[in-house]
Amino acid sequence: MTQYVIIGDGISGSSAAETLREEDPEANITVITDEGEPLYNRILIKEHAKGKLPEAPISIHDEDWYDERDIDLSLNTHVTSVDTGAKVVHTHEGEDLSYDKLLVATGGTPTQLPVENSDADGIHHFWTFEDARGIRESAEQAETGVVVGAGLLGIDFAAVCGAQDVAGKYLMRGDRWWRYALSGDGAEIIHEGLREKGVEPVFDSGVDRFEVDDDGHVTAAVDPNGDRYECDFAGVAIGLTFNTEFLRGAGLEQNNGIVVDEYMQTNVDDVYAAGDITRFYDVLLGEQAQNGSWGSAKEQGRVAAVNMAADDEAEVFEWVSSYSITHFDFPFLSFGHPTLGDEHAERRYSDTEWRRIAFKDGKIVGGVLIGDLSPQSKFKQLMREQRVVADQADVLLEQSVDLDDLAPAQSQEQ
Ligand SMILES: Cc1cc2nc3c(=O)[nH]c(=O)nc-3n(C[C@H](O)[C@H](O)[C@H](O)COP(=O)(O)OP(=O)(O)OC[C@H]3O[C@@H](n4cnc5c(N)ncnc54)[C@H](O)[C@@H]3O)c2cc1C
Question: Is residue 321 part of a domain?
Answer without folding.
Answer: no
